[in-house]
Specification:
Elements: H1 14-19, E1 37-40, H2 47-55, E2 59-62, H3 74-88, H4 91-94, H5 101-123
Parallel strand pairs: 1-2
Length: 124
């Protein structure tokens, strides 16, 4: 995954993210290299990206602009929003102070380990 500037449009990083995603675990046998479907909000609603996802064998489930809310995609998105909220609990990640990408990614990994440790400790 690549680290980009804060003012970049997310949709420009959609295909590089899909191309660098790790194999998807599932049934016995060779793991899938791509997910079956991609859930996305209205910011990704463009025929070009739908077409490129289908060409990669991924079913796009993208909310359409101009349609009322309630498509059901929000049911799954809250997991991502919650995780980002946990990461923003680390002030160093919320406000990017580091100029070097590798240091920022190291702090991101450390925050992820701390979040995971807290949740595993609650399971006991």
């Amino acid at each position: 995954m690549s680290l980009t500037g804060g003012h970049r449009n997310d949709v420009t990083q959609l295909l590089p993210l899909i191309d660098k995603s790790p194999p998807v675990a599932g049934l016995v046998g060779r793991p899938r290299r791509r997910p079956n479907a991609l859930l996305a909000d209205r910011g990704y609603d463009h025929d070009k990206y739908r077409r490129l996802l289908r060409a990669r064998g991924i079913r796009p489930e993208i909310a359409q602009r101009g349609q009322p809310h309630g498509s059901g995609l929000g049911i799954f998105r809250w997991v991502v929003a919650r995780t980002i909220s946990w990461l923003h609990g680390s002030r160093r990640l919320r406000i990017r102070w580091e100029r070097r990408d590798d240091i920022h990614e190291a702090f991101l990994g450390l925050a992820t380990c701390l979040i995971t440790h807290r949740h595993v400790r609650r399971l006991r």
